[in-house]
Structures are given as C-alpha cells and as structure tokens.
Amino acid sequence: MKILVVGNGFLAVPIIEKLELEGHKMYVFSRSIKSGISSPQIQGDIFEVDKVEDVLRKGFDVVINTAWITSLGKYQSDVINTKYGDFALKLAKKSSESGVKHFIGFGSCAEYGIRFSPSVAGVTQLSSTNLYSAQKIKAFHRTKDLLMETETRFSWVRIFQPYGLNQDYNRLIPYLINCLKNQRQIEINDQNSLLDWVTTRDIASAISWVIKHPLPIELDVGTGRGHTNLEILTHLEDLLGKCKNLQILGKPLLSRPQAVLGSQSPLLTSGWRPKDSLATGLDWVVSNE
Fold first, then answer.
1. Which residue from 34, 143, 239, 280 puts its CA 20 to 30 A from 286's CA?
2. Residue 243: which domain range?
3. Residue 123 CB: number of other CB atoms within 10 A?
4. What CA–CA distance (Å, rounded) separates 5 from 83?
5. Quick one: 190 and 206 in the same domain?
C-alpha cells in the first residue's frame, strides 16, 4: 500500500519503520525533516491547506495522522489544541476527496476522563477534563460524522500510556532512568494511579493490525494491565540499581484512578496482542539508552 504518515514524532517513527519493513510505500509529511527516516519526507506547514492538498495529490491508500501538541506541561491547556482539532478534520476531508481508502486518526485515553475501572472503546462514555481531551473528542465526533457520508474507512485509535526509545526526557520513564543512572533524587507525585503502559513498538504493531483487519471505528491501544509509578520505579531499579534518594510528594488515596484498557476492547477481541510486558519493555528502553 501507499501510505502517508503526517508527523514524524515519538509515535510516528516506529510506525513508519514497522510499515516500511512490511513493504509498504511510505511517505512522511511534517514541518521538519528528521534524520534516520529512509522513506521520502515532505516538509511543509501542516496548517497550510494548499500544501496538504499538494501532498495528497500523490495518491494514497492510507493516511495516518499523528500530529498533535504533546509538549509536557502545556499540552493539556494550550489553545493550539483547537487548531490541531480543526486540522484533523480538514485532513480527513481532503483525504477522502483525494480518494484515500482509510483514514486513521490518533486519539488518547485522556478522552475517557477520570475513571476507576478499565475503559472499552465504543462502550465507555467519553468525558473531557481539559482542553486537550475536549478537542480530541470533538475531532473524533466531527471526523466520524464527516466520513460516514463517504467511502473512506475511518479508524480513531486511542493510545494509552506510551513509552519507548527517544522519548522526551521530561516524561516519567526517561526521567527515572536518568535519575537512577546518575543517582539523583527522584520525586514521585502520584503513587496511586494505575496507568496502562504500552511500548511504541507495540503501538506500531497495533496500527499495522488495524490497517489489515476490518475493525470498528473506535479502537484502544494498550496492554490491559495497569501499573503505578512506584511499580515502574521498582522495575527500573532491578535493571539499574536501587534509588538512594526517593521523595514521595503525593498522599495515598482511598480510591485509585486508572487509565487501563478493558479486556473487551475491540482491538484485543479481534486477536491483536501486545508483545511487551512491562519488564521486557523497560529492558528494551534501558538497553538502548
């Protein structure tokens, strides 16, 4: 297949590499050119509609939109979320008009809001808690309504807690690895929440599966297993040595919020399974640091 990936960031690169290995003809459209990507890269502003239309004239079977703000500390409330939401809809519209057979948009487990039980795509009610999740939900609904009137297949893939190679060093796992390696003080604010950590190579595998199999519109990518931040630290200590200076800032809670994939998720019931456990995933990341 001829596939266009919009964006060349943390989640996009493993997907590009996975689909390249499977023999697909890949193209990448982003604001910057990234070294290490062997597929043709097209540089341009994703918010310029004319440029997007020019790219789509190359003719694609599948378009995968990974572009969205992810800057730690600002992504939840930055007004640019609205701009990314509008772009997602415009890209879907232009893709369909250009004959794209399958449009894949990236959502987030944040769309489920604060929960105390696992989430299941297409069943669990969506609930926004900030601008980021609100715009993700809005983009999903608007794109779904738009593409229902076309012959373009639509998949909205909600990613749970991703980790992998070359992640922002301010994110939890790179932060913990750096502190353990350099024996710096570790501060953990949340010792209660259960998060479903999924490797970027498993996310790439899931996207490949979505392309190959007829599935519902709403899909979740996770492992179905939740872990606290303290459990992550314990696994990393097994690989890198004990933390000598740990400061827990958050207080224990009676309730335990969670962002965990439910066992009845359509992706899991279709037969896809993640290959990484938390232990193998963390070992992969640490070994490649």
1. 34
2. 164-195+225-261+275-287
3. 11
4. 19
5. no
